[in-house]
Write a structure and sequence with these properties.
Length: 144
Amino acid sequence: MVALSLKIGIGNVVKTMQFEPSTMIYDACRIIRERVPEAQIGQPNDFGLFLSDEDPKKGIWLEAGKALDYYMLRNGDTLEYRKKQRPLKIRMLDGTVKTVMVDDSKTMSDLLMTICARIGKRNCWFRLVPALFWRWRCCWLIFW
């Protein structure tokens, strides 16, 4: 089988690596951590591969349990080895701001369940509305 040559971005460093198309994403992350010194920071489970798009609002996280060929990657495609966890500021209806660590690789419904659990709300009939003045790093948590 022909090896797949991918550009792996880690911070501001880009390395070209070759993988078998049948390589699982989890194994690809392990290989990246072993071969690239810049990737050896933090816990391995906190990082994943992100396939970005020209539009910065688009892109997908590659699931650890799937193979590279599932995503129909081509030679020369760029994947980012990036941290999945990030802080998200939530402004409550009473004006208080709470910061919650969220996993960017999860779906929006999973994020909402995580956020509700972390701020102590049992009922998850809420929705998140982006607050434009905080440059998409904050959301309003409102009743639905």
